Structure formats: structure tokens, C-alpha cells
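Before a colleague's protein record goes any further, I have to sign it off. My question to you is simply how this chain folds and whether the C-alpha cells agree. I do not need a full report, just your reasoning and any doubts. This is what I was given:
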Amino acid sequence: MIRATPLDLTPDNDRIKTLMIDCHCHLLPNIDDGAHDIEMTTQMARAAAASGTRAIICTPHHLNGVYENPARSIRAALSTAREQLAANGIPICLYSGSELHLVPELPDRLFDGTALTYNDRGAAALIELPKATIPLGAEAILEQLVYRNITPVLAHPERNAVLAAHPERIGEWIALGCKVQLTAQSCSGAFGRRLRLVCRRWLELGWVHLIASDAHRPSGRSPATLAAGRNAVAAWLDEDAATLLTETNPQHLLSGEPLLDLPPRQTARGETAGSVWSRVLRLRR
């Protein structure tokens, strides 16, 4: 089992004040729809380092019907990527993970160790939903994970059409024990005004636990976008919130500790986010 070594996140550039950990990134070479080869991996890592990221949890797709990346394949690709970054003097620590599709066999694959949790800690797993629907039996699968003490971290749920339109569903899942990871470009507005508004609303409600790049390329969907997402959170809430979502909670993923919650904020309509939370839960009883 791969274990994390303590992170040395000392900035090597006075211009870089943040020490972000990207907890969702398709950096590993030639393993999914992310980096095509080791050179693209290198370019993505350089972009991450230049923008203030000091560690990346590599999360290739698995069990989505297109890509099969069991633990052994990810560990081999991770070793190659680490060697490449060290040879090029790129100050990024890489850790193992997966982006796991929400399918019935997922709990068994996690329990037998062929699918990876964050940093192989067995504490939390990144779970991907389809863009347009929620799979039949989704709640039952999530409940199985929570029951077995694996925290489901929902990857970019703001981009799921059902959850964006019916946020009471995400509220229910958080109450069950799930956590939420937003995409940085959704927060910054790069994916459009509608998604940006959804992200801000969920942040105000205290429903968000992590921000990540979900990077696939050196530019465009780049690791460098994490900084813009962090800046959006800092502007909407404050620096402490931005730090929690891009530094503190990602570090907790690496160490296997529970993720911390954001405090609910006052909403634009003058009601507390806590009162909205209570009403959302009542809607589903």
C-alpha cells in the first residue's frame, strides 16, 4: 500500500503565496482521456507548479465503461510520472487516487483493493456521476460506502443536470455522509454563469468541501485553473474558506482524516444558509 510522506510545501517563488493541493487531476500519461504521453504530464505539472500547486492527487477514470484502471495500473503510471518530474526538477508531489464511476460493482472493487481510494488510505473515494442523470440505485451504493467507513467525495456534482436543478438531492447526500468537490472552472465562471451561480449558492450553504482542477491538458482544462477557482471562493467567502477547500481538506484526504465543513453564510435573500439546509431536508422526508 502506498503511503504519503510528509509534504514539504515550502514555496520556491516569492510570487506564489498559496500552497494548494489539487485533489482531482488527470495527469498520469496514456491511461485515460487526460495526458496523452509523459511530455504532456510534464507540461501539466509545470503549469501546476507555476500557479501555486505543490501536490496533486492523480485521479484517472475507472469503471466508467471506457477506461479500466485498477490499482496496479495506476501505481505503475504514478511511478513513471514521479520519476519524470524528479528528472525535470518540477517541485510537485504526486499521490494516487481514482475517479470512480458510480456503478453497482464499485463497493466490491473498493473493498477488495482493486479500485483506489485517495492516497490508498481507505478513507475516502472520488465518485463520478453521469452528466445528465443520476443512476438508478445511486443512494444505495453511496450508503454502502458510508456504512463501510469510506467517505464518497462527489466529483463536480454542479455539472450534473439533475443535481443542479434539484439541489435538495445533494443536500440529502451530504446529510448521508457524502462530501462535495467543485471544479475550479465552474467557480471562476469559465464554464458559464449558470454553473458559477450554482457553485456560489452551494458554497454559501456550506455544502462544499473541496475545489479541484479536474485538469486534462496543459492549457485550457489546465491544473493552473485551480488558482482562479480559489480566488473566486476567497472573493465570495474569505481567505480562510479558500484555504480550507484547496489546502486543509486536500491534506486531510492524503492523511486519511475526516474533511472539515464550511460554516454556512448569510444568503442573498437575507436568510441563513442553515435555515435553507433545514428546509431542503424537510422536502425529502
Summary: The longest strand covers residues 20-25. The CA atoms of residues 28 and 78 lie 7 Å apart. DSSP finds eleven helices and nine strands in the chain.
